[in-house]
Structure formats: structure tokens, C-alpha cells
Amino acid sequence: MSSSKCTLTINGEEIRANVGDTLVEAALGGRIILPHDCCSGQCETCRVRVVSGKIDDFDTREKDTVLGCLATLEGDAEITFDPVPLVTTVKGKVETIREIIPDYLEVRVRMERRMTWLAGQYVKASFAGFPSRDYSPTTPLALDAEEDVLVFHIKVYPNSIVSSKIGTRIKAGHEVKVKGPYGNGFLRNQPEPLLLTSTGTGFAPIWAIAVAAHLGQPKRPMKLIVGARSTDGLYMKEAIRWLQNRGVEVLVTASDGDGSRVLTNRPYELMSDLTEDHVVYSAGAPSHVEATREVARRANSTFYADPFVVAEEEKGLSALASSVFRKLVSPFSSKTND
Fold first, then answer.
1. What share of the chain is helix, strand, coil (3-state, %, to 5)?
2. Which residue, 69, 120, 236, 263, could crosslink 39 as a Cys pair with Cβ 3.0–4.6 Å?
3. What is the pLDDT of residue 313?
């Protein structure tokens, strides 16, 4: 009879673990914190690289990576993960609320102390008196960043619990508690060409990645595909111009585009030149993320995902219906944004 114990090596450190444990469980049992959040296969914060060994990937494999909260040990194995900032909780206050275009806001929160995050990660923000929501900190569209200020792009949904109250019940001076950062879709220092894709406010983490890559990895090839349901949702035009003026190729698409400056293709239809050398980051609607994930899989590209799921109860459905909806939309949906 085989032993129920095995050895798991994490970033070079060996621990004893139980066969059948998830990688997150095994790591915690060995007093190693493997980055994680939802532990249900949704957020992808716990995605790790499998170096060797016996692991049941639970159908979560992307190239040589798996989700640590679902993948289980079948025997001795070795995994690695990228170092990330520690999860902390920091208080702050809303400093400014600016309407970018109708129904799209830029909200700045001045923190009591700096919160460290990597471009592409997300946090859990709780405006006092309201439920927590997941938002991606981003680079200000005007590029006037401050170290102790977090900037969020938020779409307003009528009659929603949180977003519709921003600017009315939630004003400058409103207290906010922010916990994080989370997420695996952050910029790495790699030489391979970047393809960044987004829909809606998924542009927030993609914009942060694009700016960080342009300034910190200026020789790295980069292309953006920016989508919206309609041209009315293209709130990021000044950011697109900034990138284009610096030689970055940006394709913009919407269902009612003119076919020239704004295309009408779906974002994944514009990824025909993808190769196994590309590193792809995708953020926005789950259907968009899953479509781009499939194209990346076929090309054997490295893929990082940040799907946004609107909290359906914010639009009038019950919490139960919302839960069912999220499960049906995508098994890898992560962020609720309202």
C-alpha cells in the first residue's frame, strides 16, 4: 500500500504533506503562505508553476501552471510561485470622484499609509456602510499618480447597492477599508511580446500594466486590444492616445464602431497573429476572458486572466440568482464590480 504522505517542494523549501491535499492546504500545513483568495477556482490568485511531480490539475492547467486551491497532490512534487506583496488591510478616505464619461467614474482614495500592489492585481474595497467590492487599482488617466493614493475605475449601475451611491451617499471624505492585493494577472519582468486585452472597466488593470511595461520595460513589444459593448463605453480615449503617441499599437473595437478608428470585431477575433512566444493578459467580461483564453491555449501562449463579474444583485436579482448566474457564466469568474 502506498504511503499517504509525500514531499512538496515550494520555491525550494521542502515540506511534508498529505496525498490528496490541495496545494494551498499542503502549503498552509507546512507554514508556507501560498497566495490565495477565493479558494474556489475563481480568482486565480493561487495559480502556481509545476516544476515536476504528481499533481492532479483538476482541469485547471495552463501550460505548466495549475490552480493551487483545486489541484491536488498525488505524490512528491515541486512547485514555484512568483513573490507578491503581502495581503494587508489599510484604511483611507475618498479624496475625489470624477465622472470620466456618463456612468464611468474615476475614484481616488487617499490611504493612511501606502499599500503595495503590482500592476494588474486587485483589492477588496469596503466603503463604510456598504458591502465589499473587488476593484483593480490603476494608473490615473492623467498619469498624476501618488504613492499613498489608490485610483479605481468604476462603472455605475442604476439602483445598485454600491456604484449608484458613489457621488451621492458616498462622497469625498467617506471612509474606506481596503484589503489586498490579490490576483495572479500582474506584470512580470519578461522579454516576450505582450498582448493586453480588455473590455469595459477591465481596462483599469490593463492600463496599469501597459504604463508599467512602457516605462519599466521600454524595449518590450506590446500591443493592446481595447473593447467595449458600444462606443459610449470607451471611457479611456485619453489613455489610448497616450499609448499611441508613444508608438504602442492599440486596436479599439465596439459593436457600433465605424470600422476604421473603432473596429467592430470582437477582441478575440483580432488575435490572429498570436504565437507561443506571446504573454497575454486579459481582463473584463468573463465571456471576453474565456474567448481570449481559448485563443491563447490554441497558440500555446502564456495567459493571465482577470475576469470581472458584475454583482447581479446590484441590478435587482436576488443573491441566490446571482450565485447561480456566476457559476453558469464561467467556472473561472473572479471579480464582482458594480
1. 20, 35, 45
2. 69
3. 43
Say how many C-beta atoms besides its own lie within 10 A of residue 6's C-beta: 21
Take residue 53 and report the three cell numbers written for it. Answer: 511531480
Query: d(Cα 291, Cα 321) in Å, to the nearest integer?
Result: 24
**In this structure, what DSSP letter does residue 263 have?**
B
Residue 215 is inside which H or E element, if any? helix 203-216
> Is the pLDDT reported for residue 71 higher than 90?
yes
Q: Is the peptide bond before 102 cis (omega within 30 degrees of 0)?
A: no
Q: Where are the beta strands (DSSP E) in 171-278?
A: 175-182, 194-199, 222-228, 249-254
| Residue 226 identity | V
- The mean pLDDT of 190-215, rounded to a whole number, is 97
Q: Which of 31, 63, 29, 28 has the alpha carbon at shortest distance from 47? A: 63
Q: Provide the β-strand partners of residue 125.
A: 133, 178
Q: Which three cell numbers stand for residue 292?
A: 481570449
Of 127, 140, 130, nearest to 98 by C-alpha is 140
Query: Going by C-beta distance under 8 Å and a sequence separation of 6 or more, which residues neighbour residue 168?
Result: none
Question: Computed from CA positions of residues 174, 177, 181, 182, in that sequence, does the dihedral angle turn out positive or negative?
Answer: negative
For the cut 80, the answer to whether the pLDDT of residue 329 exceeds it is: no
- The average pLDDT across 30-47 equals 91
| CA nearest neighbour of 128 among 98, 171, 88 | 171
pLDDT of residue 131: 97
- For residues 100 and 321, which has the higher predicted lDDT (pLDDT)? 100
CA dihedral 190→216→267→257, nearest 10 degrees, is -160
